[in-house]
Amino acid sequence: FTMDIYLGQFWQDPRFAFGLNKTVSLGGLFVDRFWIPDTFFVNSVDTEIHKMISPNKKVWLNLDQGHIMLSTRLKSRATCKMDLRKYPMDLQTCHLALESFSFDEEDLMYEWKKPVGSDVFIYDAEMAQFTVVNVKRKLKHPLYHSRRFSGMTVTFKFQRRTMYYIFQMYIPCVCIVALSWVSFWVDADAVPARVGLSITTVLTICYMLGSVNSNLPRVSYLKAIDYFLLLSFGFIFLTLVEYVFVLKYAKRK
């Protein structure tokens, strides 16, 4: 999943504690002249700073006690392990983990500015396919090579929007199954009509099953929509089986 993030980092540097009641705002070009935390996204595949006209980062320096704030606008593409068993009525939980790349928790300790477990502000909670249900902040202390690091985790919960699938999959599939049952009212002697209707509906269901899974990961389990389409396929296939018995009975008679 891809996110547009406004990341604000706060820390204190005693070298800038001059006792002056003044805050200085500096552009992104001065960031490299300060010590800044080497924060990185653990499960990120690709992260970049927005560079519209100039790099989207800014520093606020408080000259009283040496407090520094670094604000950066980022675009990050992170991994998320999804459970698609209830697709498309699924609720997905994704995480974004932040840690220091080189400093363990004895040198650098991360803390949220707001309480752990509180919500994170989301600018746009409704997307084309998902709605962000909630976003929670957590702390973590992973162990790497006998060194414990400080880190933070943001947990996102996404609810998939189902109206698209209802109108594009479920309702058409029900109509196709109902159409296959029309063959029960077709005369048994009209072999091309009954067979053609049943074969057409079978191929349509097979196409729908393939199109649903074409844009999804090739998981080794069946999803909710797979069960629905396979059940629909079974109903249509039974119409062909029924017609075979009808023809066999008619010949005996």
Task: Outline the structure in words.
Keywords: Cell membrane, Ion channel, Ion transport, Membrane, Signal, Transmembrane, Transmembrane helix, Transport. Belongs to the ligand-gated ion channel (TC 1.A.9) family. The protein is 28% helix and 30% strand. It is α+β, with helices and mostly antiparallel strands. It has 2 domains: 159 residues, Acetylcholine Binding Protein, Chain: A; 89 residues, Up-down Bundle (Methane Monooxygenase Hydroxylase, Chain G, domain 1). Strands 1, 2, 4, 5 and 6 form a 5-stranded antiparallel β-sheet that branches. The chain has a 4-stranded antiparallel β-sheet with strand order 3-7-11-8, with no helix packed on it. The mean pLDDT is 87.
Rounded mean pLDDT is 87
User: Which regions have little confidence, pLDDT < 50, spanning 5+ residues?
Assistant: none
Global shape: rod-shaped
Secondary-structure-derived class: alpha+beta
Task: Return the string of H and E elements.
Answer: EEEEEEEEEEEHHH
The CATH superfamily of the largest domain turns out to be Neurotransmitter-gated ion-channel ligand-binding domain
Largest sheet: 5 strands, antiparallel
Using the coordinates shown, work out and report the CATH topology of the largest domain.
Answer: Acetylcholine Binding Protein, Chain: A
Helix content: 25-40%
CATH architectural name of the largest domain: Distorted Sandwich
N→C terminal distance: 64 Å
**Count of individual beta strands:** 11
Number of helical runs? 3
CATH top level class name of the largest domain: Mainly Beta
